[in-house]
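To fix ideas, we now present one chain and its tokenised fold:
***
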Amino acid sequence: MGTPPHEHTDQPTDDEPPHWPLLRDEELADCRVFSVRRTRVRSPVTGSEHDFFRLDSTDWINVIPLTPDERVVMVRQYRHGTRRVTLEVPGGMIDPGETPEQAGARELREETGYALRELELLGSVDPNPALFSNQCYSALATGVHQVGAIQNEGTEDTRVVLVPLSEIPELIRSGAITHALVIAAFHWLGLREKR
């Protein structure tokens, strides 16, 4: 019996392309939040060798913090990639030794000044499997409440915005929320609500 199409596996099946054998793997640059690696691989079809470049990063988490009155605690922050201010849910890198749940609670507290009563992992995605090697988890935090001030560190500068959960679909449709991984988190939440 074959693997269902929704189930992830590292082994090729009859209806999948074969994996490319790894010949060499070297780090080219350490950019603090990710490293750039060059891999030398062999095509299983032609036998020819090719270089590919990969960005290695620790896993990430995005948290949808929901207040008892059904508002999402979101943040506005300037993003250097697009050179624009974005509307996002809190999130970030999972530090070594942390679980996704611990990282989610920490990121929520640091970026918003809010704490949570309960956190539920909703799912995970490959941010961009053509380039990135990591996973991005999505979680729902419930019973969130303000416990203090924002605790931004370094270059981070977030501003809290409380958004009714019912307005999120229109904010995505209108382009007010553009971060793909934030949209993925809300998609995971929608799947949870349909269960």
